Amino acid sequence: MNLGRLYRTLKHLKTSQLFYQGLFRVRAKVGRQVPSFNAQLTDARCVWAKELSLLRPCCENALLSLETSEFRFVGLEHSFEGEINWETAGLGKLWDYNLHYFEWLWGLDVENAKALTLDWIERHPYARGAVGWDPYPNSLRIMNWLGYWGTVGRKALGDDPSFKTKLFESIGLQCYWLTKRLEKHLLGNHYFENGAALWVAGTFFDHSAAGNWKQIGLGILEQQLPEQLLADGMHFE
């Protein structure tokens, strides 16, 4: 262990981050029971569905080929030659994270988008250490799913009650799990995205659990925005 490097890293962390760094690691080793979420999620307000289009990312063209499931992230191309391996592509965690963000969903028609969304739900369930359930990709995926299915795929969602139920139940479980894994140990953009995802989901849905998500998300945003956005408009990171 390089003690000098460790000291130079730790001295920049807040006391709260040190506490949550330890707590986060203990929880990761001990693990948790498979989370369950039973709230009824078949009804959504969608009162600001048009504004969800603002979530549209700039890298929707990362999916190069549906036929071979070929993607390009962080300058690296990879083809799964068919069925996507949601566990890992073997190109590093950042590449895997980008796959699970689902920002590329915006470049698909609704039928293909539905097929790949269902594939993730059915073939990448919660499991200890599952990369797609890490808090950061979890947060971005929640927003991209709600953004896409609240705008581009909204009609298709209404025409397929079975898919709508599966989608909303999965998002509910992801939101519930996210509230248990907020990245207080990292803060910065990770914690901000946690809050943004919970606020978006809490505003989208209309039930008691969503009200809790909205309050948690709003609290994080109100705390983080003054810190992360500097007086000159620049981001502190």
Structure description:
- It is a single chain.
- This protein is mainly alpha-helical and 237 residues long.
- It is built from nine helices and three strands; from the N terminus they run ααβββααααααα.
- It has a three-stranded antiparallel sheet, with helices on one face.
- Strand 2 and strand 3 (76-79) form a beta hairpin.
- The longest helix has 21 residues, at 208-228.
- The model has no long low-confidence stretch (mean pLDDT 84).
Would you list the SSEs in sequence order as H and E?
HHEEEHHHHHHH
Major beta sheet summary: 3 strands, antiparallel
Average pLDDT rating: 84
**Number of distinct helices:** 9
C-alpha Rg (nearest Å): 18 Å
How many E strands?
3
How would you describe the oligomerization state of the chains in this entry? single chain
What's the arrangement of secondary structure elements?
Blueprint: H1 3-10, H2 15-30, E1 63-65, E2 70-73, E3 76-79, H3 93-101, H4 110-123, H5 135-149, H6 154-159, H7 161-180, H8 188-204, H9 208-228
Antiparallel strand pairs: 1-2, 2-3
Helix pairs in contact: 3-5, 4-7, 5-7, 5-8, 7-8, 7-9, 8-9
